[in-house]
Automatic annotation (TrEMBL):
Organism: Lasiosphaeria ovina
Taxonomy, superkingdom: Eukaryota
Pfam families: Ppx-GppA, RTG2_C
Residue ranges of domain RTG2 C-terminal in the record: 418-601
Protein name: Ppx/GppA phosphatase family-domain-containing protein
GO biological process assignments: regulation of transcription by RNA polymerase II
Ppx/GppA phosphatase N-terminal domain span: 53-388
Amino acid sequence: MSSFIDIITLDNFQHKMPRWDPDSANHLFALVDMGSNGIRFSISDLSPPRARLLPCIYRERAAISLFDALNKPPTSPNQQGGTAPMVFPPETIKLVAQTLARFRAIAVDDYGVPPSQVTVFATEAMRRAQNAVAMLTAINAEVPDLVVYVLAPQIETLFGSVGARSGFVDVKGLFLDLGGGSVQMTYMDTYAAKARGGHEEDKEESTEVGYEIAAALAGESLPFGAARLIRVLQDAGADVQAAETQKLHSGMGEAFETLRAQFPTLAATVAEARERDGPGIDIYLCGGGFRGYGSMLMHNSSVQPYPIPAIGSYAVSGDEFRRANHLLKVNAEFDGKIFGMSKRRRTQFPAIVAVVKALIAAVPRIRSVTFCAGGNREGALATMLPREVRESNPLDLVDAPPYSTPMPPLATAALPADILDTLLSAFPPITAGALNPLTSASVFNLHFGPIYIRQAWARAGEDADANASAALHDAVAGNPGCPGLTHVARAILGLTLCARWGAGVSPIDGDLYRGLRALIGATDPDALLWADYLGAATAALARVVPAWPKSRQAIDNSIRFRCTSESGKKLKILLDISISKTAARGLDPQDLVDLFKNVAKNRADTKVAVTVSQLG
């Protein structure tokens, strides 16, 4: 076991994690965070001079809840015994192993990340599972050279807080991270650290983390993550719920008092708030649970539709933050889609609110709350950087030359025409009286196919909803990559790229999205169908071939489209997606099918049916 599992602690993390070297020939780093609520994978380019920005060039999330996969635990999160063992079922072990194999292949084979710069770490669910060894053995069998690290609670606090801090120039306040299995609390004050001129240990080695280590040492990890706590609230009796809620409140209060005693600037802020009616304490929140609370606050903001479709750096006053009961009521009564909130997150929302209420009760006066995009992965990357890079002003680097493009040199890569040919094969044959993508306004006949294809893999490291928004705004702002496009061409390009990213349209973008569709629908309603269909087909291709294809043969060896149609009262488009056994490893076929779920959704005369098969 020692060859493929290790525990990362504050004492050894600098030696276990990959090291960043500004003179290295390759600055790509891949990270897999095996969290309790899902497994997140990202590739980041830490090339100078933009390393401080932690630019992400590819990201993907596997909806595998390791905590849910464990057999139902004892009712009390703190109870050590119980009748039901907490073990991963065999099907979950197999799926996780295949998923990590897929992620590793994307990193090393498709993007060229050195194997030594691929890191996998696990958190609360793996720490609790009684058969964690079986999981790790299966991973080792599937990917022998992949090391899985299990994070000690203090390291999880370190990575989470440093990741949240990385999104700002300077910070001073409490940092909390709410995951599926646990919640961490600590405190950071970069102003005080800079005023002291750093710590003595920093002088010996520039990669020491100074105030961040102090935060990790003083931080507390409580076993009240959203996935764990919701089970108590849904399944336990009233007495157990009351007892566990009390433990949560007392644990949060004790954690806060520990931090107050450890950090003089926090103690001074608390004293000022209590004794002299001072402004109060600033709080920074990260983790999926807290981001869900922020999304609900954004949904209920007085500014509607809220103009920025991203939760990162969204801030509210302490008074707004305290509206927990109102938000709980909205979550229970609102039937529509809330932007940024998945069905799973809304199911867990009562548990999230319980944690928020415990935080409100623990902190004497909250001035502001800021929701952070960064977390464990960003923190792990940031701690690889030397202090002078980590503490530099990120705003100075925004205009620095970015990582050029995920597309390899055209001399060795598939041409845009090759990729367009593959996508065209996803369309039904042209027959008399049938819908025709070559006569409707589309990427194919408006002659901007190469522009579209060059953007199909761009921004793969960004959030899909943010990419959908960017596609719409880039199309109308005159910067889609080529001047001189007509209004129709801009609308088609924007809508097709928006569909490629799932068309997760935020409220502020709704009017723009509807306006572009109205522009096309007024003259060519069929073009809307093909824009949605091509976007979904492109998303399927990019899911199977995650980076710009290295050759036409590489596409054909991984994925094939075959499409037919049946005429009648309703045109039925029958698409089969064949993928190779290698490409299918760790990939859920239903995910590919679901990419097309909204295509032709509002058309009474057309239906799209998608199947996935193995490429023979």
